[in-house]
Amino acid sequence: MTGHVTIRNLSRSFGTFAALRDVSLEIPAGELVALLGPSGSGKTTLLRIIAGLDLPDAGQVLINGEDRIARHPRERGVGFVFQHYALFRHMTVGENIAFGLRVRPRGERPTRAEIRSRVATLLDLVQLGWLIDRYPSELSGGQRQRVALARALAIEPRLLLLDEPFGALDTKVRKELGAWLRDLHHGSAITSLLVTHDQEEALELADRIVLMAQGKVEQVGTPAELYTRPATPFVLEFLGEANRLPCRLGEGGAAVLAGTGDVLAHGLEPDHPLARSGADVTLYVRPHDLLLEPEHEGPVVITRVRMAGAFAKVEALMQGISLTALMPFHRLGASGLREGEHARLRVLHGTAFAAEGVEHPAALRFEARGVTVPA
Amino acid sequence: MGERAQFPRRGGRVTDRLMIVAALAFMILFLLLPLLTVFAQAFAQGLSGYLTAILDPATLSAIRLTIIVAAVALVVNVVFGLAAAWCLARFRFPGRPLILTLLDLPFSVSPVVAGLMLVLLYGRQGWFGPWLEAHDIKIIFALPGMIMATIFVTLPFVARELIPLMEEQGAEEEEAALLLGASGWQMFARITLPKLRWGLLYGVLLSNARAMGEFGAVSVVSGNIMGLTDTMSLDVKALYDSYNIVGSFAVASLLALLALVTLVAKTVLERRFLFSSSATGEAA
């Protein structure tokens, strides 16, 4: 049966450091959920508590409605994949994968032939059949992690826990293995919980993201929800680079650049209480939503134009605020942007949060009016 | 070679040679010559003289006693060493630094003092003396005392070898084993022990060499009753004192042989050790 995990009011401290503060969470059966957050945010601690490798100071972990805290790790039926693989160094690949079956009590243990065929099936699944007699030290990092995954799946867990499984691998292998893991997850009836500090990995792979910071859950949602409707400035900035523009909310919910009176963007929710308040806000704009257009008397000065892969990265200054804009590289020539020249600023999409000190947690979304994005 | 070229030669060729000669002279005078003398003296009356000396009942008894003492100490050292290393490497608790320091006590206390401590505790006039005598248990001037003295001086070897190794290897493989359904004993026997085998063997080798060669502590508690409480090391001294030079050196040659075997085994183990830990480093 696929695992449905409920976490209730979990707390865990190490000395004076609070790793988890009253965390509650639902992980629906069958989903691939990413626990995302910076280091020290408590995500690995949470994973280890769910596995039973650590005990909470307070709170409950329920798997399919049953309290698991009292159960020994070996009885929890979870598969665990470690960042540094933790393969048994003195055993071959085949022996590693067979371990979970061989240690079963005599009555439940499959026969030798069954174990052999199960190992072969799992090795086929991770596409490493030809490495069955090798030792872990003879494998590459990506191969080791696939063996670790096969080993974890051998006991047919209801819940697969992965602790930064791709953290020690280089980018290309990481991407391949990530896509492969997602396919594997969707091809089997299993709930997977993936710890990562890489927001791209989480956005790409997960059905649902749990974003954590300082031992607390900041926001839970689908990647699209988190990306388009971040609950806090922290979520917004953790999911990707953003320009910060100090604004005041003007008539009709428009975002007016502080000090100049230029209208940068129009609010999508003019009736929102924050929109009508006329408060100071910070408008967060992703680099690809920031449009610079050459204009002789414009307030923006281009300081640097660089190529960053498929994109051109334009750095600029406006009244002491540094800006970064991204555009497809092929558009750079036609845009007419050159270092040292002036430009004006358009905001295609933006999200505003009340400026610090103002008690108003809600986010406001903005977009440009009457701007056509050049193809 | 290329690295050396970066440093201009300061001294002349003469100084270089003088230093090499001095180093070689030291090695020959202090290591090689004494070792050769042992064998030369042992065979001073030919092979038959050597065999007569070795096959002397008192000597055979000393060899047997040495093996018994070393074997018991070995079992205790392995069990204690594994338990102590597990506890000290895997857990952080109040008093841990104190225990780590205490563990080194046998290294820092003179063996003779260690023997005396046992006499003061278990001897006829010692703290437990009257009680032991009342129950007819003999520790001092008997086998139990010699085993205790040997265990005392060899206790830290295995634990000292295993603690850094266990700390370096970490506990993730054990955690993985538990999560795969292994019991505590399965985890220990199938994961921990194989992981530690080379370090454990190395520690056992060192402690065994020390156990067989121990003189001071055992000498104090044994009472040197020839043919009864004499180990090989004690026998060498006893034979020498009674002007049986060939006998003394014949036994000494056995100990020297043990030392040579230990050295070779140690070198082999160190190679395995380096190989296996470099493979670990790559995996981490």
SSE topology sketch:
The complex is a heterodimer of chains A (375) and B (284).
Chain A: E1 5-14, E2 17-27, E3 32-36, H1 43-51, E4 58-63, E5 66-67, E6 78-81, H2 93-102, H3 112-125, H4 141-153, E7 159-163, H5 171-186, E8 191-196, H6 199-205, E9 208-213, E10 216-221, H7 223-228, H8 233-238, E11 243-249, E12 254-257, E13 263-267, E14 280-285, E15 290-294, E16 300-308, E17 311-318, E18 321-328, H9 332-335, E19 342-347, E20 349-354, E21 363-367
Parallel strand pairs in A: 3-8, 3-9, 6-7, 7-8
Antiparallel strand pairs in A: 1-2, 1-4, 4-5, 9-10, 11-12, 11-14, 12-13, 13-21, 14-20, 15-19, 16-17, 16-19, 17-18, 20-21
Helix pairs in contact in A: 2-3, 2-4, 3-4
Chain B: H1 13-42, H2 46-55, H3 57-90, H4 96-103, H5 105-108, H6 111-122, H7 129-134, H8 143-154, H9 156-169, H10 172-179, H11 184-213, H12 216-222, H13 232-241, H14 245-283
Helix pairs in contact in B: 1-14, 2-14, 3-8, 3-9, 3-11, 6-8, 6-12, 8-11, 8-12, 9-11, 10-11, 11-14, 13-14
Structural notes for this entry:
The complex is a heterodimer of chains A (375) and B (284). With 375 residues, chain A is an alpha+beta fold. Chain A has helices at 43-51, 93-102, 112-125, 141-153, 171-186, 199-205, 223-228, 233-238, 332-335; strands spanning 5-14, 17-27, 32-36, 58-63, 66-67, 78-81, 159-163, 191-196, 208-213, 216-221, 243-249, 254-257, 263-267, 280-285, 290-294, 300-308, 311-318, 321-328, 342-347, 349-354, 363-367. In chain A, the strands form four sheets. Chain A has a six-stranded mixed beta sheet, sandwiched between helices. Chain A has a six-stranded antiparallel β-barrel with strand order 11-12-13-21-20-14. In chain A, a hairpin with a 2-residue loop joins strand 16 (300-308) and strand 17 (311-318). Chain A is elongated. The model of chain A has no long low-confidence stretch (mean pLDDT 86). Chain B has 284 residues and is an all-alpha fold. In chain B, helix 9 (156-169) packs antiparallel against helix 11. Chains A and B meet through strand 6 and helix 4 of A and helix 10, helix 11 and helix 14 of B.
